Amino acid sequence: MADKLVHKVAIITGATSGMGKAIAHTFVANGAKVILSGRDEERGKALEKELGEHSIFIAGDVRNSAYNEQLVNSAIEHFGRLDILSMNAGILGLGSVTELPDALWKNTMDTNLSSIFYLSKYAIPEMEKNEGSSILINASIAAYKSFPNHPAYCASKAGSLALMRQMAVEYAPQIRVNAICPGPVDTPLLWDSARAFSDPTKAVENAASKTLLNRLGKPNDIANLALFLVSEDASWITGSAMTIDGGILNA
């Protein structure tokens, strides 16, 4: 086991699949104790079993402010402190502006953006007690690049970067706040996103071929960057949005 996060306690949302799951494995492998958040209890309990005694899964909906408070209280109750937030919960909310139902717009904004506010609101007072605390938001290149039928997703991800920068100003130097902006990563969300196109399989293949590195990202690619940004290796980085996209924005 590596030791970059020894004595650190993290809350990881969106932990039961894709990038969040890879981040959970990587954080625990580096010594962290983790509170795992997700809606799927079966997958969450399976992940808790995989990760062992230093992980606790708490099922719930990040759109609910009280659930986010519960996550923070559980970190303190079980592990005595809170040092890291890794926020990965997200949905797509597919549909053009003229077709998107109001309820789906709100659901997407609440899941992708409001949940960051809720969890940070309750976590920051605890994190300020500990040197080296760090907040990491999983945003997207959709904050910079638009895609058909993704208005709610693009807007929510751009909003998350604005919130990240504001919190970095507000809570420095006690807490570092950063974001990562993944490109096409081989996760269930990518394949769901491809449904916005007439040929989903071709859309995913095209995304891979358009990267400068000619492949999709892997969840572990994202987890490795997340580990760097929340560790002391990144102690002079805050208010930054790190693109990790195989070079697709430059293609």
TrEMBL record:
Swiss-Prot/TrEMBL keywords: Oxidoreductase
Judging by the UniProt lineage, the source's domain of life is Bacteria
Q: Is the Oxidoreductase keyword given for this protein? A: yes
Q: Name one Pfam family in it.
A: adh_short_C2
**GO terms, molecular function:** oxidoreductase activity
Please give the InterPro entries that the UniProt record associates with this protein. NAD(P)-bd_dom_sf (IPR036291), Sc_DH/Rdtase_CS (IPR020904), SDR_fam (IPR002347)
What family is this?
Belongs to the short-chain dehydrogenases/reductases (SDR) family.
State the protein's name. NAD(P)-dependent dehydrogenase, short-chain alcohol dehydrogenase family
What is the originating organism of this protein?
Maribacter arcticus
Upper taxonomic lineage: Bacteria, Pseudomonadati, Bacteroidota, Flavobacteriia, Flavobacteriales
